[in-house]
Amino acid sequence: MQLIKTIEDLIRFRTVTGSSEEINRCLDYIAAQFNGTAAVVRIERFAEASPVIYIANNEEMKQDVLVLGHIDVVAAADCMFEPKIVDDKMYGRGTLDMKSFAAVAMNSMHYVLEHQLPLKFAIMLSSDEEQGSKSTHAFLAKYPMLNAEVVLDNDVGGDIGKIINKCKNPVFVKLIATGQPAHGSTPWEGLDANEQLMQTIARLRQYYPYFDINNGKPTNTWIDTMHVAKISGGEVSNIIAAHAEALLDVRLVETSTLAELEKNLATACGKGVSYQIVSASTPVVMAEDNPQIVAYKQFAEKIMGRKITFEQIGGATDARLFAQKGATVIMHSGSGEGMHADGEYVVLQSVKELADLQIEYLKNLSLAH
Predict the structure, then answer these.
(1) Which residues contact 8 (CB under 8 A, 6 or more apart)?
(2) 3-state secondary structure at position 365
(3) What is the mean pLDDT of residues 91-112?
(4) Is residue 123 predicted with pLDDT exceeding 80?
(5) CA-to-CA distance for 255 and 184, rounded, in angstroms?
(6) pLDDT, tens digit, for every residue of 182-225?
(7) Exposed / middle / buried, residue 63 (Cβ in 10 Å: 0-12, 13-18, 19+)
(8) Strand partners, 69
(9) How far apart are CA 59 and CA 64, in angstroms?
(10) Taking a C-beta distance cutoff of 8 angstroms, is the pair 105, 71 a contact?
(11) Which CATH number fits domain 169-279: 3.30.70.360, 3.30.365.10, 2.30.29.30, 3.20.20.150?
(12) Distance CA 196, CA 25 (A)
């Protein structure tokens, strides 16, 4: 398989989340790359979720290794769907997040098939990860037995010199404020839902401080954080708002609990303000001395000729669904910058290194089977 050409081909598909026609075309392209091979290819479609493509070298659902990823991207200008290579960097939407690494997984599958490695290996690519991964949940609901000893998650970070061993628990919270309408000229006759909401958020800042580019990065970033993702309230300018809502994005470290968050929310909510937990997950925490991670790290250092360090990130990962099942999750990606931004790029050398690393790791695992 021509790795760089495959990445370029994938970038040209405008698979913005929800673009069903382009997503289907991309999935058909991926499936066609395994025509004539012994691969088992399934494109699963769901009534209330986007499709998932699942590729394996066997008919089972309990794998030795599973590569997890997605092919959908966030919106971008037309020019970003035409990849450009400058100074070993490929620019384009999805180069870093994460079509380059979907191509790496496809490359690994071709190697496993061509060399008939005695290893149960599979790839699972969703198509709505950028908006909640309903397709991943739908696939696992249909195939609840799917699991792997090791899950390779290449949808993290952006620095091939670092292995992610901790991801936070993302919790989305809706605040709802109910007020009493009155004319804007006589605020003492009403109760402003907007004001109630802002005061609640201010009280929450006692537990979850505010950070931005002006007040600086904290010395320790492995802390609980909160940002106000969306806020709305009021109808017209001269009427006191009777209703207001806010959506909060809270990221909890592994030592913080949902119960503690709810206690803080209950304390912060003033009269007329309530909260709803929209969604909550679990953090992913992998021990640095996990034997699989140790072995992988050693291969990475050998192939790249430099030390690999561990890092923690605030972002979430679909791999948490497999960590909950007991899988060892190895979170490692290639290098690049501009994820979701206009200048998104991936360093091609890092893509090639990751491809080599993945194959060497699979070859070594196959010796034990």
Answers:
(1) 83, 90
(2) helix
(3) 97
(4) yes
(5) 45
(6) 999 999 999 999 999 999 999 999 999 999 999 888 999 999 99
(7) buried
(8) 125
(9) 13
(10) no
(11) 3.30.70.360
(12) 48
Assign 336 to helix, strand or coil: strand
Whether the CB-CB separation of 328 and 286 falls below 8 Å is answered with yes
pLDDT digits (tens, 9 = 90+) for 229-287: 999 999 999 999 999 999 999 999 999 999 999 999 999 998 899 999 999 888 999 99
pLDDT in tens, 321-365: 999 999 999 999 999 999 989 999 999 999 999 999 999 999 999
CA angle in degrees (0–180, nearest 5) for 13-15-20:
115
Q: Is the pLDDT of residue 227 over 90?
A: yes
Measuring CA to CA, which residue among 357, 365, 319, 355 is closest to residue 147? 319
Q: What are the residue boundaries of the structural domains of the chain, listed by start? A: 3-167+283-367, 169-279
- Cα–Cα separations (whole angstroms), residue 75 to 11, 215, 317: 12, 30, 20
Distance CA 308, CA 331 (A): 13
Query: Model-level pTM?
Result: 0.88
* Amino acid (one-letter) located at 125: L
The answer to whether residues 121 and 358 touch, using CB atoms and an 8 Å cutoff, is no
The 8-class DSSP code of residue 96 comes to I
Q: What's domain 3-167+283-367's architecture?
A: 3-Layer(aba) Sandwich (3.40)
